[in-house]
Amino acid sequence: AEGSNPxxxxxxxxxxxxxxxxxxxxxxxxxxxxxxxxxxxxCSWRGKFSLTCxxxxxxxxxxxxxxxxxxxxxxxxxxxxxxxxxxLCYNSPRTLGLEVHSSLNVSGTPFLLSRTRNVFTAIGxxxxxxxxxxxxxxxxxxxxGCISYCAGFHEAGADGEPCTGLGCCxxxxxxxxxxxxxxxxxxxxxxxxxxxxESCRCGYAFVSEKDWYNFSREDLTGVGKxxxxxxxxxxxxxxxxxxxxxxxxxxxxxxxxxxxGGSAKPxxxxxVSDHSFCVNATQGPGYLSTFSSAILACFAWMELRKRDxxxxxxxxxxxxxxxxxxxxxxEGQVKEITNGYKNMVGKGAYGEVYKGTIGGAxxxxxxxKRPVAKRPEIGKDEFVKEITFQFRITHANVVRxxxxxxETDVPIxxxxxxxxxxxxxxxxxxxxxxxxSLPERLGIAVGSAEALSYMHSHAEHHVHGDVKSAxxxxxxNLMPKVSDFGSSKLLRMGMYSRSVVADISYLDPVYMKTxxxxxxxxxxxxxxxLLELITxxxxxxxxxxxxxxxxxxxxxxxxxxxxxxxxxxxxxxxxGALSKVYMECLDMIGKLAVQCHGGCGGETHxxxxxxxxxxx
Length: 616
Ligand SMILES: Nc1ncnc2c1ncn2[C@@H]1O[C@H](COP(=O)(O)OP(=O)(O)OP(=O)(O)O)[C@@H](O)[C@H]1O
Hints:
By secondary structure, the chain is an alpha+beta fold. The two termini are 62 Å apart.
């Protein structure tokens, strides 16, 4: 994973994560993915790292096959397992009363004996210890060993001394071993008496973790609480640790080293990402990757991602929201819904908006708001309250919150999809395809006002905070649906200033002076939308002209001759447009808008209820 930033890397295509609900502990032993407990192939990587947990022991014991596992390290790519101990005991200077050989075979598993972390050790007086070993199930073509001799108990090395052949001997082992047979025996071709047989009765041989064994003369005695058997056990029932390297190999490994330079990109890796590459093996043929840094990075990346998601989920109040009944999507589900974020339909302060479909018997089209900004810390309780509130709103003129994904820093919000774009696009868009009639504009004004009125008076006096034509979406019947009730508020909960979130052209001057944003500020913004509807001018037009200011000028002067000067020419040229009723209707909307802005000597918007109520 050289040069990569794991947290930004794409998920490795070929490596699926574990299913939720898999056991991750056996007794005291943690079982991290790619390892898993039990037959469920989904709990471990492709079922190839499955272990068993035997709970007839107290505490339960973890096994790979019949070999007990003491611990697993993802970072080191190692597991520590029980090492079988071979032993013998003399019953005369030259004859053995007991001779037990033992073996260990991990061929065909992801494990190999670690060359660097283990050593072969024999303990005893007058003993020859053999290690037969190989790299496959039947292969025992390699052998090594060592001899230990001592003329008497006190002739053996002192406690703690290195194993130099006086009571114990050691030799290192090669790489690429998966099959070992250990023999503790006498040299039968040239038998030598064991003069110390009465005090140094037993001998032992094993492969163990390097530096684990510390020589003690008492180990030679074969009896007593300080003997080797008492301290460490014998046969397969020992607590002698052996270190196995583990890696993903056949069917999930790197191509052979000769095919792969340092930058070669493998094609069938367990863990293929742009940042992965194969490294040459140090474990000999057949062992293609000693837990390559790429694989390590992938596992680390997966673990990090998992932890991040959990952290975000908790921070975003996931546990509470689960109880509320809101649909909570995983990041993967959102990706599926949006077909990999393929169809972006817009972009706002909260983030990018993608069209998607929730499948099922009745597929539902949705708009997925994916945050782009990192949010400042906001109160979890506040966020949960807001999302819960949004989720519970059911009003035909408010865009419905369908669900959310809490696994990201800022949650992804999923809304119903409103197909006809925003009022802004329909009125002012460069690709404008339709002309709105006056009754259609009235319908949009009334519907939007109802949404605001509902929120202001019924829904705990909820202020929108960013009323504008871009936030009024139109369905196929031109029914308006006010959007962003939630997201503008959610953004404001952080340290963002109001002015960053809202469009300044719609901002209430009273708010500008006092810094206090109330439902009456929404009324002011709604007045600007009304003016957009009858003039088809943007809130700021012809450079920096303010629509509410310019429109209100003749109204304030009571200059009837010019009051109608800004009405949309499209409306005025429509059939029947110049009828009395038609013009009076336009005038009423104009008057209402001016009142929303506190003009004309009438009641200001600060003295009235919601503009929505009046418009309705
Ligand atoms: N529910 C929806 N259905 C269909 N399209 C949507 C939906 N929500 C947003 N859009 C589209 O995405 C665009 C951006 O929407 P968004 O609400 O994020 O930003 P905005 O309202 O334009 O700006 P701001 O975030 O500053 O208020 C909208 O103009 C609209 O075209």
